[in-house]
Amino acid sequence: MACQPSSSTAGSPLPPLSRPQLAEARRARAVELFEDGVSNAEIATAVGVCAESVRRWRRVWEEGGASALRRRAATGRPPKLDDSQAERVRAALEQGAQVHGFEADLWTLVRDGLSAHWSRAMRAWVAGQDWLTLERSPAYAPELNPVELLWSSLKKRELANLAGDHLADVADATERGIHGINRNPQLPWSLLAHTGLTTHPPHPPNLRKDR
Question: Is the pTM of this model over 0.70?
Protein backbone atom coordinates (compact mmCIF):
# COMPACT_ATOMS: atom_id res chain seq x y z
CA MET A 1 0.00 0.00 0.00
CA ALA A 2 1.43 3.38 -0.99
CA CYS A 3 1.99 5.86 1.79
CA GLN A 4 1.50 9.58 1.48
CA PRO A 5 3.81 11.93 3.38
CA SER A 6 2.15 14.18 5.88
CA SER A 7 2.05 17.85 4.99
CA SER A 8 2.49 18.92 8.60
CA THR A 9 5.86 19.49 10.23
CA ALA A 10 6.91 20.12 13.80
CA GLY A 11 9.09 22.97 14.97
CA SER A 12 10.49 25.70 12.74
CA PRO A 13 9.72 25.39 9.00
CA LEU A 14 12.56 24.27 6.77
CA PRO A 15 14.11 26.98 4.55
CA PRO A 16 13.62 26.74 0.76
CA LEU A 17 15.84 23.92 -0.49
CA SER A 18 16.25 21.78 -3.56
CA ARG A 19 14.55 18.40 -3.42
CA PRO A 20 17.82 16.49 -2.65
CA GLN A 21 18.74 19.07 0.02
CA LEU A 22 15.28 18.90 1.55
CA ALA A 23 15.43 15.10 1.68
CA GLU A 24 18.81 15.23 3.40
CA ALA A 25 17.56 17.86 5.87
CA ARG A 26 14.65 15.59 6.75
CA ARG A 27 16.97 12.64 7.31
CA ALA A 28 19.29 14.76 9.45
CA ARG A 29 16.34 15.88 11.60
CA ALA A 30 15.18 12.28 11.85
CA VAL A 31 18.62 11.27 13.18
CA GLU A 32 18.36 13.90 15.91
CA LEU A 33 14.97 12.50 16.88
CA PHE A 34 16.27 8.91 16.78
CA GLU A 35 18.90 9.93 19.30
CA ASP A 36 16.23 11.54 21.47
CA GLY A 37 14.22 8.33 21.52
CA VAL A 38 11.24 9.66 19.55
CA SER A 39 8.98 7.04 17.97
CA ASN A 40 8.82 6.42 14.23
CA ALA A 41 5.25 7.68 13.99
CA GLU A 42 6.11 10.96 15.70
CA ILE A 43 9.18 11.44 13.52
CA ALA A 44 7.14 10.80 10.38
CA THR A 45 4.74 13.56 11.38
CA ALA A 46 7.56 15.89 12.42
CA VAL A 47 9.53 15.72 9.16
CA GLY A 48 6.62 15.20 6.77
CA VAL A 49 7.23 11.71 5.44
CA CYS A 50 5.47 8.37 5.78
CA ALA A 51 6.28 6.00 8.61
CA GLU A 52 7.76 3.40 6.25
CA SER A 53 10.47 5.88 5.19
CA VAL A 54 11.31 6.55 8.84
CA ARG A 55 11.53 2.81 9.57
CA ARG A 56 13.93 2.40 6.65
CA TRP A 57 16.02 5.36 7.80
CA ARG A 58 16.20 3.95 11.32
CA ARG A 59 17.51 0.61 10.05
CA VAL A 60 20.19 2.38 8.03
CA TRP A 61 21.07 4.61 10.99
CA GLU A 62 21.32 1.64 13.37
CA GLU A 63 23.64 -0.17 10.98
CA GLY A 64 25.82 2.68 9.74
CA GLY A 65 25.19 5.73 11.88
CA ALA A 66 24.29 9.23 10.77
CA SER A 67 26.88 9.24 7.97
CA ALA A 68 25.03 6.40 6.22
CA LEU A 69 22.04 8.71 5.73
CA ARG A 70 24.00 11.61 4.24
CA ARG A 71 23.54 12.46 0.59
CA ARG A 72 26.26 10.97 -1.58
CA ALA A 73 27.79 12.68 -4.57
CA ALA A 74 26.19 11.68 -7.85
CA THR A 75 27.99 8.95 -9.72
CA GLY A 76 28.08 8.25 -13.39
CA ARG A 77 30.14 8.86 -16.44
CA PRO A 78 32.45 11.89 -16.33
CA PRO A 79 31.69 14.67 -18.82
CA LYS A 80 33.02 14.06 -22.32
CA LEU A 81 34.00 17.72 -22.65
CA ASP A 82 36.08 19.76 -20.25
CA ASP A 83 35.14 23.36 -19.48
CA SER A 84 37.25 24.86 -22.27
CA GLN A 85 35.83 22.48 -24.86
CA ALA A 86 32.27 23.16 -23.75
CA GLU A 87 32.96 26.88 -24.05
CA ARG A 88 34.24 26.38 -27.61
CA VAL A 89 30.99 24.60 -28.50
CA ARG A 90 28.93 27.42 -26.99
CA ALA A 91 30.98 30.03 -28.88
CA ALA A 92 30.52 28.15 -32.17
CA LEU A 93 26.76 27.98 -31.66
CA GLU A 94 26.57 31.68 -30.85
CA GLN A 95 28.41 32.54 -34.10
CA GLY A 96 25.54 31.09 -36.07
CA ALA A 97 25.35 28.36 -38.67
CA GLN A 98 26.27 30.55 -41.64
CA VAL A 99 29.70 31.29 -40.21
CA HIS A 100 30.37 27.56 -40.39
CA GLY A 101 29.33 27.21 -44.03
CA PHE A 102 25.61 26.49 -43.79
CA GLU A 103 23.02 28.31 -45.89
CA ALA A 104 20.52 29.18 -43.18
CA ASP A 105 21.55 30.82 -39.94
CA LEU A 106 19.69 28.26 -37.85
CA TRP A 107 20.98 25.21 -36.03
CA THR A 108 18.74 22.15 -36.19
CA LEU A 109 18.47 19.94 -33.13
CA VAL A 110 17.12 16.45 -33.73
CA ARG A 111 15.64 14.97 -30.57
CA ASP A 112 14.43 11.50 -29.80
CA GLY A 113 11.75 10.56 -27.28
CA LEU A 114 14.00 10.62 -24.19
CA SER A 115 11.95 12.25 -21.43
CA ALA A 116 14.79 14.65 -20.52
CA HIS A 117 14.63 16.07 -24.05
CA TRP A 118 10.98 17.03 -23.56
CA SER A 119 11.03 18.18 -19.96
CA ARG A 120 9.37 21.43 -18.96
CA ALA A 121 12.76 23.05 -18.34
CA MET A 122 14.05 21.97 -21.75
CA ARG A 123 10.94 23.23 -23.55
CA ALA A 124 11.18 26.58 -21.76
CA TRP A 125 14.84 26.95 -22.71
CA VAL A 126 14.24 26.05 -26.35
CA ALA A 127 11.39 28.54 -26.59
CA GLY A 128 13.84 31.36 -25.89
CA GLN A 129 16.37 30.38 -28.58
CA ASP A 130 15.55 32.05 -31.89
CA TRP A 131 18.65 30.51 -33.50
CA LEU A 132 17.45 26.95 -32.98
CA THR A 133 14.91 24.86 -34.86
CA LEU A 134 13.76 21.45 -33.66
CA GLU A 135 13.04 18.19 -35.40
CA ARG A 136 11.82 15.06 -33.67
CA SER A 137 13.16 11.75 -34.88
CA PRO A 138 10.66 8.94 -35.52
CA ALA A 139 10.09 6.49 -32.70
CA TYR A 140 12.17 3.85 -34.47
CA ALA A 141 14.29 4.83 -37.45
CA PRO A 142 17.82 3.42 -37.13
CA GLU A 143 18.42 4.13 -40.81
CA LEU A 144 18.20 7.86 -40.03
CA ASN A 145 20.67 7.67 -37.16
CA PRO A 146 24.36 7.85 -38.14
CA VAL A 147 25.26 6.42 -34.72
CA GLU A 148 23.58 3.15 -35.74
CA LEU A 149 25.87 3.04 -38.76
CA LEU A 150 28.85 3.66 -36.51
CA TRP A 151 27.89 0.70 -34.29
CA SER A 152 27.35 -1.44 -37.38
CA SER A 153 30.87 -0.65 -38.55
CA LEU A 154 32.36 -1.44 -35.14
CA LYS A 155 30.47 -4.74 -34.87
CA LYS A 156 31.71 -5.83 -38.28
CA ARG A 157 35.33 -4.95 -37.57
CA GLU A 158 36.71 -4.25 -34.11
CA LEU A 159 34.01 -6.19 -32.24
CA ALA A 160 33.62 -9.07 -34.72
CA ASN A 161 34.18 -12.42 -32.97
CA LEU A 162 35.61 -10.62 -29.96
CA ALA A 163 35.55 -12.81 -26.85
CA GLY A 164 37.19 -10.72 -24.16
CA ASP A 165 37.81 -11.91 -20.65
CA HIS A 166 36.41 -8.70 -19.21
CA LEU A 167 33.95 -5.99 -20.21
CA ALA A 168 36.93 -3.64 -20.36
CA ASP A 169 38.22 -5.60 -23.38
CA VAL A 170 35.04 -4.74 -25.26
CA ALA A 171 35.23 -1.11 -24.18
CA ASP A 172 38.87 -0.86 -25.29
CA ALA A 173 38.13 -2.38 -28.70
CA THR A 174 35.18 -0.03 -29.15
CA GLU A 175 37.26 3.00 -28.24
CA ARG A 176 40.01 1.98 -30.66
CA GLY A 177 37.44 1.64 -33.43
CA ILE A 178 35.93 5.05 -32.76
CA HIS A 179 39.35 6.68 -32.69
CA GLY A 180 40.17 4.96 -35.97
CA ILE A 181 37.09 6.43 -37.60
CA ASN A 182 37.87 9.88 -36.22
CA ARG A 183 41.39 9.80 -37.66
CA ASN A 184 39.84 9.95 -41.14
CA PRO A 185 37.74 13.15 -41.20
CA GLN A 186 35.70 11.88 -44.16
CA LEU A 187 34.38 8.77 -42.41
CA PRO A 188 32.13 10.41 -39.78
CA TRP A 189 30.68 12.63 -42.50
CA SER A 190 30.07 9.59 -44.71
CA LEU A 191 28.03 7.98 -41.93
CA LEU A 192 25.81 11.04 -41.90
CA ALA A 193 25.55 11.13 -45.69
CA HIS A 194 24.67 7.42 -45.81
CA THR A 195 21.42 8.07 -43.96
CA GLY A 196 20.11 9.81 -47.08
CA LEU A 197 19.37 12.99 -45.17
CA THR A 198 20.01 16.24 -47.01
CA THR A 199 22.94 18.12 -45.54
CA HIS A 200 23.91 21.74 -46.13
CA PRO A 201 26.60 22.16 -47.22
CA PRO A 202 26.89 18.71 -48.86
CA HIS A 203 30.49 18.52 -47.61
CA PRO A 204 31.95 19.81 -44.36
CA PRO A 205 33.83 23.12 -44.79
CA ASN A 206 37.26 21.46 -44.48
CA LEU A 207 36.43 18.77 -47.07
CA ARG A 208 34.63 20.70 -49.80
CA LYS A 209 35.44 19.55 -53.30
CA ASP A 210 36.08 23.10 -54.45
CA ARG A 211 39.00 23.51 -52.05
Answer: no
pLDDT score at 138 = 73
For residue 6, which of 46, 53, 52, 58 has the smallest C-alpha distance? 46
Of 155, 129, 126, 131, the C-alpha closest to 142 is 155
Q: Identify whether the C-beta of residue 164 lies closer than 8 Å to the C-beta of residue 173.
A: yes
What number of residues does the chain have? 211
Question: Could you read off the pLDDT of 114-131 as tens digits, one per residue?
Answer: 777 777 877 777 777 777
Kindly report the CATH class assigned to 1-76. Answer: mainly alpha
DSSP sequence for 63-122: HH-GGGGSPPPP-SPPPSS-HHHHHHHHHHHHH-TGGGT-SSS-EEEEE-S-GGGGSHHH
Domain spans in the chain, listed from the N-terminal domain onward: 1-76, 102-136, 138-211
For 89-122, give one letter per residue: b (16+ CB within 10 A) or e: eeeeeeeebeeeebeeeebeeeeeeeeeeeeeee
Distance CA 140, CA 18 (A): 36
